[in-house]
Amino acid sequence: MQLHLFERFILITLDQKKGRFLIDSLSLNYGIAGAILLELSKLNKITLQNKRLIVKDLEPTNNIILDTCIKLINSSKKKRGAKFWIFKIGNKSSNFKKIILKELIENKILKINKETYLWGLMKFFRYPIINTNEIEELTTKLKKIVLEDKKPDIDGLLLLSLMNSCKLIRILFIKKKEHKAARKRIEELTRNIEISEDVRQTLKEIQTAIVAATLTTYVSP
Fold it and tell me: Do 65 and 6 meet the contact criterion of CB atoms below 8 Å apart?
């Protein structure tokens, strides 16, 4: 099954057995926003122009999340930078997260468990991974890229950069030595990988915007 970048990102953020998210909701939401923008860039739907994100292709992707964001960016009266769109889309990512989780459940990759506390007054939903093939294949590929110098494909590179921006690298590379090597390798790959200049520049802007988003509260101009 070919998963979207934002679906892979969600899988990486989940504890496989307990089904809880391994990062805070702020980082999760802005990470989802980053994954959406990176996928749109990879598909040549958006590009940077004078450090502003613009839509270059309005043809529908037939994915509700991607198409919603294309329309959102295209309908803006002013051209905005990556930071603005990370915040704007990030603030809508709670709804996008529900759509992503629903799709993963329907495809029998996740299941949903409801936990209640205080006589039912508090409810929590967990999403354990029941089909681990996707996540195991994904983590194996990412580890080979980082630890064995395997040449990455574009999806592997984008996901690693996204994980690094959201402080998820330590989840995959637990040992201190591996974690340090992973950060260094990702920085090298971002600089040297053979991707289009449009995608490279968009990737750089989005990386910076995600880090900024998780550290501050943004006020729209």
Answer: yes
